Amino acid sequence: MQKKNDANGPARRRDILLRRQGSHPLSTGNRPQNSETAPLTRWVTDGVAVKPPLGATVADGMAFADGASNRMIMSLYPAPTRGTIQELAEAWDLHPMIVEDMIVAQQRPKLDRYGDVVFMAVRSARYIDETEEVEFAEFHIVMKDNAVVILCQDHQWIDGTEASQFEDTDDRKFDRRVKALLADEGLLKLGPRAVAYRMIDMIVDGYSPVLRGISIDQEQIERQVFSGDVAVAQRIYRLSQEIIDMQHTTTSVSEVVARLQKDFIRNGMPDELRAYLEDVADHLTRDNARISESRESLSQILSVNATLVAERQNEDMKKISGWAAILFAPTLIGSIYGMNFDHMPELHWAWGYPVALIAMVALAGFLYWVFKRSKWM
């Protein structure tokens, strides 16, 4: 959905929105706050990235980017705060809806265009083998023709690295995350769209290890099911939830990539970048297919497990019923002779007691033989 600023002053609406969000219960949320982690910014000229001068502001960076057509700025916010977002909003003259999304966060993957600004929300995934869980992290990408900003909304990188571990202290030493985004100078000459592509490409590449981890868990679950482990059902349900969450994420990111392709084509996209985006879209298509197969396979495993549990319960019921019948036979004989009627010939018979015991044992043995032959025991 394309959204545009009206002509009545987006800056005024942004100020009103920011004042209103000062008391918004979700404006800080439960996300960790880390005001000490400064943005990692690079000024780029003809694909060559350099660290900006000491003390340079966001506005200074925009002035640099506006100075020539072969320039752009790239900023990575490891731990965005309300203050840094407000500074960015003022320097970029952002639409208030973008500011709201960046402050509140918790956005599903999406792409919106507001005038000359493209806003994207995407989610990375990381498999944690110890707990057999998939951890998701939210990233926002805000892009103009000569500037791009990436915000780590969960204060961590794609691989789970915490914001406090980002390094940007040496002019000659770039943080490895910045290097990953700016490694290809030839691609970087294509501008902010190339940075956005690199970010999405790294996120999508991170889905494959997650799917491998899920596949391994699924194989282990299959062995558990046929080994008769009674605790496997809970593991199946837990893995099913992880697969559903992954499916929601990859499907939404696929929609974002498709809309990004259309937006880039509409605004002129080099063939090289188009080929890269098509490759990302192909990876997402394969990931979605693998997830669908895993979900269907897990559903079949759950059905098989339910069938096996029912069979085991049926076998247990057969054994219980058989032993109940065996114990009922002597009980029946004992209860008849325990009525103590006066006119019962066997009561005064000398062999009555031994015969009753022999009858009990014989009947119980006969029933045991019948049930054993019928494989109930």
What's the short story on this structure?
By secondary structure, the chain is of the alpha+beta class. Among the domains are: 1-171, Beta Polymerase, domain 2; 310-373, Magnesium transport protein CorA, transmembrane region (Methane Monooxygenase Hydroxylase, Chain G, domain 1, Up-down Bundle), CATH 1.20.58.340. It contains 11 helices and 8 strands.
Structure, explained:
With 377 residues, the chain is α+β, with helices and mostly antiparallel strands. Among the domains are: 1-171, Beta Polymerase, domain 2 (2-Layer Sandwich); 310-373, Methane Monooxygenase Hydroxylase, Chain G, domain 1, CATH 1.20.58. The protein contains eleven helices and eight strands. It has helices spanning 10-21, 58-66, 82-92, 96-104, 176-182, 185-188, 192-205, 207-227, 232-266, 271-337, 352-373, and strands at 2-3, 40-45, 48-50, 71-77, 110-114, 117-128, 133-144, 147-152. The chain has an eight-stranded mixed β-sheet with strand order 1-5-6-7-8-4-2-3, sandwiched between helices. Helix 8 (207-227) runs antiparallel to helix 9 (232-266) and helix 8 (207-227) runs parallel beside helix 10. The longest helix is centred in the C-terminal third of the chain and has 67 residues, at 271-337. The two termini are 68 Å apart.
